[in-house]
Amino acid sequence: MKRAESSSDPPHPDSSLDLESFNALNIALQKSAGTVLLVTHDHDLIEEVATRIWPFEGGRIEDFKGPYEEYAAYAQEKAS
Length: 80
Hints:
Layout lengths: L18 H13 L11 H7 L2 E2 L2 E2 L2 E2 L2 E2 L2 H12 L1
Antiparallel strand pairs: 1-4, 2-3
């Protein structure tokens, strides 16, 4: 799945999806039977579709199995 962009559209690191596109992506990801590596800062999208979180911190990758809400609580506790 790739977001279509016009060649005249400059890349924008904080571009976001409109509600219709967000919903379509969410449904497609939930229906997917395979594995999808999703790289995003969109916490709402992560909360909707992720079952594992792989945060990159300090040059390391951690494997957190669970929903984003639990990961956020874990990360906050870890930072304290």
